[in-house]
Design brief:
Number of strands: 15
Helix content: 25-40%
Shape: globular
Order of helices and strands: HEHHEHEHEEHEEHEEEHHHEEHEEEH
Distance between the termini: 55 Å
Largest sheet: 7 strands, mixed
CATH architecture of the largest domain: 3-Layer(aba) Sandwich
Strand content: 5-15%
Length: 394
């Protein structure tokens, strides 16, 4: 008899953002004249840059020519893109070889799929609050889960404690949902911990393009000792607007082993079983995003969203609420007034300001009382939302 994965019963009934969408739809059905501003789901709104769309058009035309047609591509990605990503790391003073890069359809996918090749007997360490995929993927795969507490007291940047034990450690910096960013000294604490305890760090750098402070690392590989204990996930979704195009990559250093096995070789074997690679057209688009012209165009988009983040940060600051994020991150994470609970504040913002936000409690118990706002909307809507926030009474 066929049975479902028993671990599924340990998941929450709905994905957080499904609940948010349903609440927004219900509100609109009851208030059809309302003009909602969505700052909940972190999806980009600016169109793809011209150099990217041209690359996709050119690649499509190539596919119409028998001489240039391409079917299945390499499981690890085309060399032209892997080489370009390798050169990108030089901007941070980091050497990553092309053969250490594995192209995929999303950092979200990689964050979950990496658990396929790691023993379910391993203990996974995640922060509370946390990006839901790290938790849900670990639950589905049957891994034991330990939490490290991220709070206002440690500015949502927890560090390893003396008696902490963990085999797999998820770190996201700049963080989703809190917008907090680890500095080099703090990341060194985690790298040292991982090397001493023979742990593996899964470092999610999906938002690194939003870092502007020189003392904050863009990559875990800027930290000494990281190549022996860490892999890195990164994405074109937020830096180049690829949320609907889907292209990302994982970096697995050649010297990184789990037991006696080279992790990169094991990962490639997994990919060859379950994944047929990212399309040629998409990888040519990603290559264009990394060209000099592409970098210039995508940087304009990042700056656009960073301006939105500053507008929201200033509004929250004017209201006198405690917050993190906004400066080196596209997210603003603020504490509600007068002990309001997260969903209570979500409903209040929806009803009084027609703003769709994300309740912090959806990311974990330590998120209770907090709200996440995304800066990925339009400039005009962001200005309007800031004015609405400042005009309502809390």
């Amino acid at each position: 008899m066929v049975k479902l994965n028993a671990n599924l019963k340990n998941l929450k009934k709905n994905y957080l953002f499904v609940d948010i969408q349903n609440k927004a739809k219900d509100y609109i059905s009851k208030n059809p004249a309302a003009q909602l501003i969505s700052m909940g789901i972190g999806d980009v709104t600016l169109p793809l840059s011209p150099v990217i769309t041209k690359a996709m058009q050119d690649a499509s035309r190539e596919m119409n020519d028998a001489k240039n047609f391409r079917g299945y591509g390499p499981y690890e990605g085309y060399n032209f893109l892997r080489e370009a990503i390798s050169k990108k790391y030089l901007d941070y003073g980091v050497e990553v070889k092309a053969e250490e890069i594995y192209v995929s359809d999303g950092a979200k996918s990689d964050a979950a799929n990496i658990l396929d090749v790691l023993s379910s007997e391993s203990t996974v360490l995640i922060t509370d609050p946390v990006y839901p995929v790290y938790l849900d993927a670990s639950v589905m795969s049957g891994h034991k889960i330990h939490y490290v507490s991220a709070t206002e007291d440690n500015e949502f940047l927890p560090l390893p404690e003396e008696n902490l034990k963990a085999d797999i450690i998820y770190i996201c910096s700049p963080n989703n949902p809190t917008g907090a960013v680890y500095n080099r000294a703090q990341l060194k604490r985690w790298v040292d911990f991982a090397n001493i305890n023979e742990s593996l760090i899964i470092f999610d750098a999906a938002y690194e393009a939003f870092i502007e402070s020189s003392d904050l690392p863009h990559s875990i590989f800027e930290i000494e000792g990281s190549r022996k204990c860490a892999i890195e996930l990164c994405s074109f979704s937020k830096s180049a607007g690829f949320t609907g195009i889907r292209c990302a990559y994982m970096v697995i250093p050649k010297e990184l082993k789990v037991g006696s096995e080279n992790l990169g070789e094991v990962w490639l074997r997994r990919q060859s079983i379950k994944f047929n690679g990212v399309s040629y057209i998409t990888q040519k688009a990603a290559l264009a995003a990394l060209s000099p012209e592409g970098k210039e165009e995508t940087l304009k988009c990042v700056r656009y969203y960073k301006r939105n983040a500053r507008i929201l940060s200033e509004a929250i600051k004017e209201l006198g609420f405690w917050y993190t994020g906004g400066e080196n991150s596209p997210y603003i994470w603020f504490k509600g007034p007068q002990g309001m609970k997260s969903w209570e504040l979500f409903d209040y913002l929806l009803e009084k300001a027609n703003i769709v936000s994300t309740p912090g409690s959806g990311f974990g118990s330590n998120g209770e009382g907090f709200i996440r706002l995304s800066s990925f909307g339009s400039y005009e809507n962001t200005l309007c939302a800031a004015q609405r926030l400042k005009s309502i009474k809390f």
